[in-house]
Design brief:
By secondary structure, this protein is α/β, with parallel strands linked by helices. It has eight helices and eight strands, in the order αβαβαβαβαβαβαββα. The chain has a single domain, classed as TIM Barrel (Alpha-Beta Barrel).
Length: 244
Amino acid sequence: MALSGRDYVREKMPTIGFGTYQIRSERVLNDVIDTAISCGYRFFDTAQIYGNEAILGRIFKKVLPKYGLERSDIFITSKISPANQGTELARKSVRKSLENLQTDYIDLMLIHWPGTSRRSVVDPRNAEYRQQTYEILEEFHRSGELRAIGVSNYEIRHLEQLLARCCIHPAVNQVEFHPHFHQVDLLEFCQSRNIHFQDLLDLLLDMSGKFANLLCSTIVAINPLPQHSYAPRGSVALSRMYVT
């Protein structure tokens, strides 16, 4: 019997994942993925807007057999670009992601952002387009091509709108959450609605400001800092709060 999206995430998604944001060089990404797999990573996060799905598809085809692994041994997350919100664009983009990643299923597909490219954050059509997009995710989930579906960067009001209209419960809300930017109300809301809260952490590698992405699917402890604490990606978080 096929698992529901939420059960699939609970059973299949590793606790720690490797993000591929800003890595578009095939040579670099090949070395990074090879090293990550050799170190035990089995969860990889990408997105349409990252521009590296096709590169990852080629790399997985080459690197997985090297370590005696198959497609089913790794967990892949991707995300619908804000430029692909709406029924037809979303449907076309999911098919393209499957093609780019050279797989007949994606473990978890998210709506990357509650807003739509080239539309004001206060445009009421944002809600309409993201609802249409989620309905496409539901369509592909029913076909088995998306094993679990969810959202990213959704605030409480966005989740309330979605829960009031969706047929398939979102399995995940992936958001920024770290000691410098903590959204405790959002965390508690997701927990109360049985939505897996996945936090995105940017780890500072050196003083030059270069970052590596690390995804943690479980919050172990929360130690809120004063409200004036510096939030490295606060401008991004702030803009999300105003999306209607």
